[in-house]
Amino acid sequence: MKDGIDASALLDNLWPMATVVAVAGLAVFLNNRYFERRSKKLGKKQNFLKQMTLLGISVASVIALLIALPISSTVKDQLLGLFGLVVTGMIALSSTSFVSNAMSGLMIRTIGSFRSGDFIRVGEHFGRVSERGLFHTEIQTKSRELTTLPNLYLISNSVTVVRSSGVVVSTNVSLGYDTDNTVIEPLLKEAADKAGLKDVFVQVTELGDFSVVYRVAGLLEDVKQLISTRSKLNVQILDILHQANIEIMSPNVMMQRPIPDSKVLIPTSRCKPESDVCETDIPESKIFDKAEEAEHREQLEFRYEELCAQVELLETRIKKVPEERQVRLQRRIDSLNEKIATMAKELGYSSSSKS
């Protein structure tokens, strides 16, 4: 009889814990099944969302298991407090690296100040965004190198983003006092026009001891050609000023070496084919290849999610419209599903049916 009482009491003490374990296992199973079914729609977001959900299930399961332990309330409170201290301590110890970068990544995603393919400058780093992760952001520099920046670094420093709608490209040039600015300004504007800039303007930024510093700038609408356009602008300024017999001066010219009055610092004129001016190779396609792929993929994923949402909306509406309209809506759904299947294949998503 005593053994029966002990067994019954043991069962009463253990069944809450067994229930917690069973519920936790069922939650993990359902979580895996859900993300398997939604893998086609979620795409590369699947792993991150799945990991975050499993983390939440694990924390909730540990707390529930502590509550279900067959011990006194005082000891339970102490264990829960200890668990809270452990979690808090882990967060505090790793806050400067793991958690801080994760929180910074979430903040960057929430703010949405830049996306894949954008030109950004952070401190001494400049390039196009080729990957955005939870803990880091990768940029591809003009040397085609890949630089990984912790998200905490991006949050702690000012980030300059080149707007996709256009950017002002400018350069400075030092010219002598012997040439009137009314002659120089039209020539600099012509150079900027030939470089492909719009809304060109010229400013005098400095009056030096031996030269005047002019700044010529204009709007570049195709920001993907930023690097080559800067170089092209400098080349056009050199050609046009030299063709107009205008010297490009610098204080170093007089301070470092004497030059006779009859010596003019203009290279011998040469004929340049028109194709060299207008049809130049664009190096950005080779320099920022990974950033281009990342931008294309992000745009494709956005379009993919839009089409999936349209299909879900049409599938809901088709049940509420007359039969004659159902045929047209079904054709529309079939057409969208074909596009979705093509995009899914290009994105490399699994072939599982979307829920």
Main structural class: alpha+beta
How would the global form be characterised? elongated
Low-confidence stretches: 1-5, 275-280, 351-355
| Alpha-carbon Rg, integer | 33 Å
| Sheet of most strands | 5 strands, antiparallel
Note the run of SSEs as H and E: HHHHHEEEEHEEHEEHHHHHH
What is the number of E strands?
8
CATH level 1 class label of the largest domain: Alpha Beta
Rounded mean pLDDT score: 77
Termini separation (Å)? 55 Å
Spatial strand sequence of the major β-sheet: 4-3-2-1-5
Number of domains: 4
CATH architectural group of the largest domain: 2-Layer Sandwich
Beta-strand share of residues: 5-15%
Number of helices: 13
CATH topology of the largest domain: Alpha-Beta Plaits
* Helix content range: 55-70%
